[in-house]
Amino acid sequence: MVPVDLANSTMGYFDTLPKSFADVPINDGEIETESFLTAAEGLVALFDAINPIAFKPVKVDMLGNIKKIRDKYLVNPVAYCTLQKIVQAEAGQKDRTATQGLLWLKRGLEFTAKALRRNMDNPAEELSASFTAAYGVTLKQFHGMLVRPIFTIAMKACPYRKDFYTNLGDDPEQVQQGLEKWLSALETILINLNAYYEKGNYAKGL
């Protein structure tokens, strides 16, 4: 799937989504793989509403991690129908590519979710401030000295908040409602994944 380019689309962001995080099934605590990956690909298009050039490294990284998970899923879609089943299958193995990909994708999604939640909760705060603060409490601790400046530049390149929300759609009320529904669902998924990784200590060695 190729994420929708919002910069060249007349539709709002939530109109372009093939799958929202709100539509990702979670059964018995396990997250459906295919739906999650499609929703995550849709999130990547969100960076086109922020700054497609400055956030290109973020997009490339996230899409690369999505591919790692999907490649594993396609080996056996039935056996790997949930994210948890993929991680469980790789536990104890030397090759944990999909587990690592999901770990880093989770971190990227958490960075995005915290930035957007902070911005929604602080109507007077500009997007650059929200994303900078979110980076400081999420991805920054995992990045080395060579990567941090790239993300710092990206944060500074965020558009004015009014322009960002306009890019998400023409109707402000619909945009806010759509964003809240989508973001709340993403936050629920992240709570699930964080608890799962922590309980099983699946991030060890990655």
TrEMBL record:
<dbReference type="GO" id="GO:1902388">
    <property type="term" value="F:ceramide 1-phosphate transfer activity"/>
</dbReference>
<dbReference type="InterPro" id="IPR036497">
    <property type="entry name" value="GLTP_sf"/>
</dbReference>
<dbReference type="GO" id="GO:0005829">
    <property type="term" value="C:cytosol"/>
</dbReference>
<dbReference type="InterPro" id="IPR014830">
    <property type="entry name" value="Glycolipid_transfer_prot_dom"/>
</dbReference>
<dbReference type="GO" id="GO:0016020">
    <property type="term" value="C:membrane"/>
</dbReference>
<feature type="domain" description="Glycolipid transfer protein">
    <location>
        <begin position="31"/>
        <end position="169"/>
    </location>
</feature>
<dbReference type="GO" id="GO:1902387">
    <property type="term" value="F:ceramide 1-phosphate binding"/>
</dbReference>
<protein>
    <recommendedName>
        <fullName>Glycolipid transfer protein domain-containing protein</fullName>
    </recommendedName>
</protein>
<keyword id="KW-0813">Transport</keyword>
<dbReference type="Pfam" id="PF08718">
    <property type="entry name" value="GLTP"/>
</dbReference>
